[in-house]
Amino acid sequence: MTNNKELKRKRAPQQQKPKKAKKKSRLWVRLVKWFLMIVTFFFVCGIGLFAFYAKDAPAITQERLQAGGSTQIYDRNGTFVRSIGTQERDYVTNDNIPQTMKDAIVSIEDRRFYQQSLGIDPIRIVTSALGNIKSGSTTSGGSTITQQLVKLTAFSTSSDQRTLRRKAQEAWLAMQVEREYSKDQILEYYLNKVYMNYGNYGVGTGAKYYYGKELNQLSLPQIALMAAMPNAPTSYDPYVYPDNALRRRNLVLSEMLENQKITQDQYQQAVNTPITDGLVDQSSHQTQDSNNAITDAYIKEALTEAQRLNYNPYQDNLKITLNMDYDAQKRLYNLANNGTVSFNNSGSSKGLLQVGATVIDPNTGGIVAMIGGRNQDNVQFGYNRAVQQTRSTGSTIKPLLDYAPAIEYLNWSTAKYLDDSKYIYPGTNVQLYDWDMQYMGNISMRTALVQSRNVPAVKTLQEVGVSKASDFVKAMGINIDKNSGLSVGIGADISSLQLAAGYATFANGGTYYQPTYIQKVETADGNVETYNSTGVRVMKESTAYMITDMLKGVIQPGQFGSSAYISGLPQAGKTGTVQYSQEELAKYPSYASTPKDSWFSGYSKDYVMSVWTGYDNIGDGTIRGTESNSAQLLYRYMMQYLSRDASYSDWKQPSSVERVGTGLYVKGYAPKVTETPSTNRQSSSQNSSSSESSESSSSHSSSTASSSSSQSRTDNTNTNQNNTEVTSPQSREEDRTDNNNNRNDNQNNTGE
Fold first, then answer.
1. Which residue, 588, 626, 570, 401, is CA-closest to 499?
2. Residue 418: in which H helix or E strand, if any?
3. Low complexity composition bias: which ranges (predicted)?
4. Which residues are identified as catalytic?
5. Cβ atoms of residues 654 and 541 within 8 Å
6. Are strands 71-74 and 493-494 parallel, antiparallel or unpaired?
7. Following DSSP, what letter does each residue of 331-390 receive, concatenated?
8. Residues 60 and 150: beta-carbon distance below 8 Å
């Protein structure tokens, strides 16, 4: 008995082991089942989501696949401006596409093109994804040539549009295209649709443009370049970026060698061929017609803005609506080119005096019109002097960098006394001169600004501090180095566009709108995006109004900006001239009595315009005679046109500003006691002399003037902000000759 019990006890554990194994087996079965159910669930959901997205995919016809790419551009009123893309393509049919061309494009873009039959390549997608994860970037794409054809035909290539919905539709259409068309047809459509820069679409058009030959006449290295460019046609432009083009071309050749489409000898000979081999002279391309020349500078910048917004205007078949007013753009172009404004049209410098001008709507930031140069009819997307050129602005920077920060931060009034006397830049032996080589003593801020005195402007900047003033204008898109010397207060290197945007903040009461070219973009699949610049307050309303009130005086008859005067139109503005340095005068002594650059920036409540005139190269010539007023005249004629239907409304004094006598004060900083001064003082609101004051560099004299009017002054001192005067004692201008030969350039070549 005992033995039997012991046997049972020994057997008992052995009988329990199969139960545990069975439980483990069931657990794994359940886990596998759940896993399969989850996978099936997500697979079914994926299929459903794919079907849901795919049902809204745009239709693709053979006509659309064969059509050339183009972006249609309209102005803000819906007027068609131009189309980006060659309308008369050199379409190359399959039987005229060399096999070498097919081998090159397949090797670099989609080596498995002939092996896959779905239109998508799962292996390539996975390989690309793993490569991007490993590199930490998204430089490698998984799209097949068929998918790329679909993108160029029906979708935007914008990164913002790379959504799951778009990818599903793209894959669905690629499968349709793959099913309905042969590989040769797909290659034919693709090779005739790719963008080749300079408005050229298709490798056949590219062959004609770059080599002046038919596609089947190109050599191996030339074909390799044609296959290289569609990936980034601007970056691989052999004219502008030959080194980039060479590297990309050689990569194509390397891929062809690895894909066994060329021999080692062919490869070696091709990579040793200069990238310029066979290229026609770019100057031989006459791509501009008269209509395109009118809008060239504007369109160039608009296309750049489209790319910043992640669109590809050369490939996406977009409809772009601009902030441009085409009629205004045409008017600006004609004024600069048809002789209405006096630009030099005779002598050795005929036609070389240049211009860069920008017109902005101050209430939206929309760029209404722009011109980047004169006499550029045969140049496409050339040098834009309104944007790319940064020349010293002369005195047009004073309201922005000097006086506005003083009002904003120090609460100075327009009647604040400023000292116009001999001044040496701190830490140097360089003396700062005014434009007339004289000093006026104590004058009001209003007089200092209207009369464009250099010394008070620099002293004001010194009070504010360059660093603080730099931050002030940075909020308006103007970059001034905080380590700049004080001379930056009478001339900073910025563009016409930046200056116009800065003055726009005065025009609208202190709000900065980033200048924009594009109002709306519609993609090929019907998606519409609207772009509006969001305004940001960058200065007090009181600051903007007080600056505007002072700048009104600049444009009055008899003042520096009188050539910009328009009867009845409330407007404000500032002139600027820049003189040659001593080194430049040593080389060109005959330039001593002439300015190097001439500026004018002005505005009404509805429009702002900034104009630069000058020569690209110092040897081209110098501004002489009536040409010194060309910037003002261009402004005047353009503003007359723009304001023809305007209400001519004036700025209203805000509640944050108080007027005492002729002075404007920030509320809370006005003096409490005033008295009437002697009658030999002139009203600063009338800007001293009634005679015409010239800021040009030619010799001149000013008539002695006196005033019978009295002006209010204060005995009270605002100790908080050092506002000590209501108006300035204005020095009477005596007859004097401007000795330009002795004029110091003040380290910034600034005339006034």
1. 401
2. strand 417-420
3. 678-728, 739-752
4. 109, 395
5. yes
6. unpaired
7. HHHHHHHSSSS----SSTTTTT-EEEEEEE-TTT-BEEEEE--SS-TT-SS---TTTT--
8. yes
Find tokens 């090929």 and name the residue: 524
- Taking the alpha carbons of 206, 166, 75, 599 in that order, is the dihedral positive or negative? negative
3-49 pLDDT per residue, tens: 555 545 555 555 555 556 666 667 777 777 777 777 666 656 556 55
Decide: 326 and 77 in contact? Cβ < 8 Å. Answer: yes
Give the whole-angstrom CA distance, residue 526 versus residue 694: 57
Angle at which helix 164-180 crosses helix 145-154, to 10 degrees, equals: 110
pLDDT at 698: 30
Which tokens belong to 442? 């104590």
d(CA 437, CA 446): 20
**Predicted pLDDT of residue 381:** 76
Cα 285 from Cα 87, distance rounded (Å): 16
Give, as one character, the DSSP assignment of residue 65: H
| Torsion angle of the four alpha carbons 128, 131, 135, 141, in this order, in degrees rounded to the nearest 10 | -10
Strand partners, 608: 360, 603
The residues, ordered by sequence, that sit 6+ positions from 115 with a Cβ below 8 Å of its Cβ are none
The 3-state secondary structure of 521-543, one letter per residue: EECCCCCEEECCCCCEECCCHHH
d(CA 593, CA 700): 11
Q: pTM of the prediction? A: 0.70
274-286 b/e (C-beta count within 10 Å ≥ 16 → b): ebeebbeeeeebe
446-498 tens-digit pLDDT: 999 999 999 999 999 999 999 999 999 999 999 999 999 999 999 999 999 99
Please report, as a single letter, which amino acid is at residue 426.
P
User: Which residue, chain included where needed, has tokens 């131009």?
Assistant: 82
Residues 458-482, buried b or exposed e (16+ Cβ, 10 A)? bbbbbbbebeebbebbeebbbebee
CB 300 within 8 A of CB 387: no
* Distance set, CA 100 to CA 105, 210, 222 (Å): 9, 18, 11
Q: Which residue has the tokens 């239709």?
A: 59
> Maximum Cα–Cα distance for the chain, whole Å?
145
Which residue has 């590219």 as its token pair? Answer: 206
